[in-house]
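# nightly structure sweep
# worker-07 picked up a monomer target from the shared queue
# config: single-sequence mode, recycle default, output format = structure tokens
# input follows
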Amino acid sequence: MMLQRSWIKFYSPKRRCRLPDAREKLSKLMKREVSTNFPKLYSELAEWFHLLTAPEDYAEEAEFYRNAIFSACDGTPHSLLELGSGGGNNAFHLKAFFQLTLVDLSADMLRISKGLNPECEHIQGDMRQVRLNREFGAVFIHDAIMYMQNKTDLGKAIHTASIHCRPGGVVLLAPDYVLETFRPTTDHGGHDGEDRGIRYLDWTWDPDPHDSTYQSDMVYLIKDKDGNLQVEHDRHVMGIFSSQTWVELLTEAGLQAQVIPFEHSQIEPGTTVVFIGRKLSGRNSK
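# output follows
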């Protein structure tokens, strides 16, 4: 799939206190939790994100996701929650069909997405824990789901998606790989802006096939407006799980699981799947 990747835990004070004190305590907690070791692409290099992976490149992919959601829902969904929304590239295309709420862990990525999708609601949050206390017609997690490095975290993210999905709605999960289809790959790309540009080389490999992670080592060649070149290495460590694990976790979250092939003109048929979880009418997740 196209390069998207990325995704503060939301806290509420356990005891009542004066409003200014509550705000101060909440702010401290959130700042502490945000001190995550983000890949450079989602922090210090976030301003380059849309040159690395342009929103226009996502049109075909987003259309596939829209059709999959509409086909699986009972009725027409009007609202969509995207967890791990990153720079907002999918949202750029989906916002014409849904009222979007975009959640991401990185404040820098939310800032980038707001510039692209100012009409969408943006919330900083961790897909494993965020609670918005409302339901949506559909919940979507793109390849940010790959940052769930163990089964426990993957289950938490899927549970979050389930509890925010209304009965009759669907959860759509779009991992880059499942265990059965993983293979080492290399990729490259990038774009030029008016006075700057970036190119990347991506080497995806698995240093330990016996654990639940693999890694993507990315090298960025960055050219500024004066023609100066900067080289950066960025390591992304991601989770890899069997299709059976994905289906089991969807089922445990109260969803009716379905596996469908991902279809895209640039993807070899049969190499990528997405997971649909239908929220049956009358069922609610705790």
